[in-house]
Design brief:
Elements: E1 4-7, E2 12-15, E3 27-29, H1 37-44, E4 55-59, H2 71-81, E5 86-89, E6 92-96, H3 116-126, H4 148-154, E7 172-175, H5 182-192, E8 196-199, H6 200-208, H7 212-219, H8 221-238, E9 243-246, H9 255-267, E10 271-275, H10 278-285, H11 298-312, E11 315-318, H12 328-335, E12 342-346, H13 358-361, E13 367-371, H14 384-397, E14 402-405, H15 420-432, E15 437-441, H16 446-455, E16 460-466, H17 477-489, E17 492-498, H18 503-516, E18 523-528, H19 533-538, E19 543-545, H20 561-570, E20 578-583, H21 591-602, E21 607-612, H22 620-624, E22 628-633, E23 647-648, H23 650-655, E24 660-666, E25 669-675, H24 678-686, E26 697-701, H25 705-717, E27 721-725, H26 729-738, E28 744-747, H27 753-757, E29 762-765, E30 787-790, H28 799-806, E31 810-812, H29 814-830, H30 836-849
Parallel strand pairs: 3-4, 7-9, 7-10, 8-9, 10-11, 12-13, 12-19, 13-14, 14-15, 15-16, 16-17, 17-18, 20-21, 20-22, 23-25, 26-27, 26-29, 27-28, 29-30, 30-31
Antiparallel strand pairs: 1-2, 4-6, 5-6, 22-24, 24-25
Helix pairs in contact: 1-3, 5-12, 7-8, 8-9, 15-16, 21-29, 21-30, 24-25, 24-29, 29-30
């Protein structure tokens, strides 16, 4: 490129040519040093040297698509902001060199995707941009070179200035029919995401100083659509970040507007289609006179536009998906990326003997696949009755959703391809039996598939294709054809290829990223064989997994949840987090055993430790650490921790205490959320043990912070009358005032006459086991039995538990409540179901030995 390289035994020095005279290199194979392509790319961006074809082509870097982000795609997108023409190659990037003087300062700055190499490479390019460059997410360099910005200034003499530019996120566009709630929902979502809201119709009227009806009256509909499209184009440039923009219902009527929305959804962010029942829309619009009347029936308009809305959007939100309509939280979660999910593929010929290990083999998964073609009744293909019994047994042993799969021989399974009618009869039976998912092979009879779709009800269809011969190419026409077919059939698309080398996984990821910009349905896309295991690590939706206790893997190359998590950590996609318990004294806490067991079983790289301190200020450096993942909080810090948090949950507000810190990463940045799982520990300890009705009475003993959780839990269970005993009357009055609607009845004694007349059936004790209180037998005189929850867990069997069980009551020990609330913490922190059986076993073992 025109540089001079000087090497000694200990150093390499590169001296560039005079500014503006870098030469392009037509072809560079960087397979042996792929991470360095970003630096080479920004140099190629200014390598012109007055040559006719100033093009640099960098190849051999396909693995850069699966780093902290898709680095090739990001490099192309960000270079375009500088005015540099760049495009993707199958395994690389092509860059047209530009003169330094023509570089533009990127509007909104460089989006680094939390990738240190992107930040460092573009800061190099930014050194020569005439009007300067903003690099967002500057802290991302800290993982490898914390002193990068200082070195730029002190060693290279580059002037760097810190600015308060806030966080930037691609704007979200709302489209949909008039009256579906785009403005109302847009304002609420903007508030939830800490963004600005802009209504395109209102903006139109503001900049033209006229109303929309008047503009249409004077200029006509065509002129209105032209002007609307022009304003949309301008907004997508001037309001590209940190806005929720609600468009008018007819925005999709104009071809230019549709093209703008399509490009935006494919290359930038979300275009959200808001859908509402048309009858509701009509009732609403009949009351609205502020909009110009449409010249045709609203149903005709909807029938014409719904395909256009679908083409232009990449997210659907139906405002009646839930009873009472979707909440803003639901909508925000749809807009944000969802978590990774797994299903376990059962390969037993008879699952009945394996039911006892079902809790173990389903650790960390979100659904269970029943491979019907692998079931065997006395060595033969199973009968309908046998399959029905197997399904019923599985349903009794697990509450997880079931995927009903019959894999044909041509698709890698054992079911005969010739028995197509029987195949569909079994799928119909699965629908009738309430299976949440059925797998439908897309090569089957179109007529029979269409009939199945008509009767599927709430069952979701996974439309699948397995390339058993291994002839399908991820960059070929066949896979596109298979995806189109699956898209027309299923709620979820599943395409399985066969990897012959590592690069087949990169081609898969490139294809899927391209598809996901165009279609909204979830895609399961993986490669079989050991060479394809990387694709299983990177797949997001319902990745099929195995377990060591299964008789065999359902497909070659299948991994367990544990292996996938470990693999994700090794490739930088699952960073290690540090978790703690804050309090004093905590030396004998069971929490480290509980959480570290869960992390180990699921293969998560995290660690949970003790942090004992009387001074709450001591936790501040810990919770500010970027590796901090969350914490349990116990005495004496459950209240004093609150000022250190960004917000606390409604449960914590009502209880007045926090026992859990949750770290959230979202578009608005990092937040520390206070939660209370004490009440959940009590709630889940009681719920399966007793049937509660309007006559059920509860009793809480104690008046401290944990008693608040006990009162709250009983109320959430549906207990309308709650006796409260505490030695201090003032404390009882305080709690009655805190929970005025909870039916609290204060007691001066556990021998109170009201207990004798209407004894409780649930007792929650929140006092230390050493408390010297008398436990009268009248407490257990209901004659119907009851449940005692003991919050103290040393000693294991307290006086209250002993007397209660002697009278036929069910006793819940304090260590079990601890486990229940800890499982809730684990699931909040990891997003994964806790491996309950192993955690309980290890905690009880440690407890018994302590």
């Amino acid at each position: 490129m025109g540089c001079t390289v000087t090497q000694t035994e200990t150093s390499t020095t590169v001296q560039g040519p005079p500014i503006g005279s870098l030469r392009p290199l037509p072809n560079i194979d960087m397979e042996t040093m792929t991470d360095a392509f970003l630096t080479a790319s920004v140099l190629a961006a200014v390598a012109s040297n007055n040559e006719e074809e100033c093009i640099t082509r960098i190849t051999g870097i396909a693995n850069q698509r699966v780093k902290e982000c898709n680095r090739i795609s990001v490099m192309v997108h960000e270079l375009n902001k500088f005015g540099v023409i760049a495009s993707e190659l199958p395994d690389g990037i092509q860059i047209h060199g530009s003169k330094i003087q023509s570089l533009k300062s990127p509007v909104g700055g460089v989006k680094c995707h939390d990738d240190h190499r992107i930040a460092m490479s573009f800061s190099t390019l930014g050194c020569v941009v005439p009007d300067g460059t903003i690099i967002r997410e500057k802290k991302c360099v800290e993982k490898t070179w914390p002193g990068w910005w200082d070195n730029l200034e002190t060693k290279l003499g580059i002037n760097t200035v810190g600015i308060n530019s806030g966080s930037h996120h691609d704007s979200i566009i709302f489209i949909g029919m008039r009256g579906v709630g785009k403005t109302t929902l847009g304002r609420e979502v903007a508030k939830a995401l800490d963004r600005e809201f802009l209504d395109l119709d209102h903006h139109f009227e503001a900049i033209l100083s006229t109303s929309i009806p008047k503009f249409i009256e004077e200029h006509g509909w065509n002129a209105f659509r032209d002007k609307e499209s022009e304003i949309l184009r301008s907004l997508l440039n001037t309001h590209a970040s940190d806005y929720i923009i609600a468009c008018g219902g007819g925005i999709v009527e104009h071809p230019a507007s549709r093209e703008l929305l399509k490009q935006y959804s494919q290359n930038h962010g979300e275009v959200v289609h808001i859908v509402r029942d048309m009858n509701d829309v009509i009732r609403y619009l009949n009351k609205d006179t502020s909009r110009p009347m449409l010249s045709e029936d609203l149903f005709n308009v909807w029938n014409r536009r719904k395909t256009l809305y679908n083409e232009c959007s990449n997210v659907d939100v139906n405002t009646i998906n839930t009873i009472g309509g979707m909440t803003v939280e639901n909508i925000v979660e749809i807009i944000r990326k969802t978590r990774r999910t797994f299903f376990i593929s059962l390969t037993f010929p008879d699952i009945t003997p394996a039911l006892k290990i079902m809790p173990t083999i389903t650790h960390g998964v979100d659904a269970i696949e029943l491979r019907v073609d692998l079931l065997s009744e006395n060595g033969d293909m199973p009968s309908v009755e046998y399959i029905r019994d197997q399904l019923a047994s599985l349903r009794r042993s697990s509450s997880l959703p079931i995927i009903f799969t019959i894999r044909s021989q041509s698709q890698g399974g054992k079911y005969p391809d010739t028995q197509e009618t029987e195949y569909f009869n079994l799928l119909e039976q699965a629908i009738k039996n309430g299976c949440e998912y059925i797998d439908v092979e897309i090569h089957k009879s179109p007529t029979l598939i269409e009939n199945l779709i008509k009767m599927k009800g709430n069952t979701k269809i996974i439309a699948s294709w397995h390339d058993i011969p291994g002839t399908m190419k991820w960059d070929g026409e066949e896979v596109r054809r298979r995806v189109r077919t699956a898209h027309n059939i299923g709620d979820i698309i599943k395409i399985v290829g066969r990897a012959k080398c590592l690069s087949d996984n990169f081609k898969l990821r490139e294809f899927i990223e391209w598809q996901q910009r165009r279609i909204k349905k979830p895609i399961i896309a993986i490669n079989m064989e050991v060479e394809g295991q990387l694709s299983r690590l990177l797949n997001q939706t319902l990745t099929p997994v195995t377990h060591p206790l299964l008789p065999s893997k359902a497909a070659p190359g299948q991994l367990s949840v544990n292996e996938i998590h470990k693999g994700l950590h090794l490739i930088g996609q699952l960073p290690k987090k540090k978790f703690y318990i804050f309090g004093n004294p905590i030396a004998h806490s069971m929490s480290p055993t509980l959480h570290n067991t869960g992390f180990e079983v699921l293969g998560l790289p995290h660690h949970y430790d003790l942090f004992e301190s009387e001074d709450i200020e001591a936790v501040k450096p810990i919770i500010e650490d970027i590796e901090f993942g969350g914490a349990s909080v116990t005495i004496p810090h459950k209240i004093s921790i609150i000022p250190f948090l960004d917000q606390i949950s409604e449960h914590s507000k009502l209880i007045g205490a926090v026992n859990t810190i949750i770290v959230t990463e979202s578009e608005t940045g990092r937040k520390l959320i206070g939660e209370n799982t004490d009440w959940l520990g009590i709630f889940y300890s009681i719920k399966p043990l007793i049937e509660i009705n309007s006559e059920t009475i509860g009793l809480v003993i104690g008046g401290g912070g944990t008693s608040r959780a006990g009162i709250y839990a009983l109320h959430q269970l549906g207990v309308h009358t709650i006796y409260l005993y505490n030695r201090t009357q003032a404390k009882i009055e305080e709690l009655k005032n805190q929970f005025p609607q909870y039916g609290i009845v204060g007691l001066s004694s556990l021998s109170d006459e009201r207990i004798k007349q209407k004894p409780p059936r649930i007792i929650v004790s929140t006092i230390p086991a050493t408390s010297n209180i008398e436990i009268p037998y009248e407490l257990f005189a209901s004659g119907k039995g009851g449940v005692i929850v003991e919050m103290a867990y040393k000693p294991r069997r307290t006086q209250l538990l002993e007397k209660g069980t002697e009278n036929g009551w069910i006793g819940v020990e304090g260590v079990q409540v601890l486990i229940e609330q800890g499982l809730c913490q684990f699931e909040e922190w990891t997003g994964r179901r806790a491996p309950r059986n192993i955690i309980e076993e290890n905690v009880h073992r440690k407890y018994n030995n302590s």
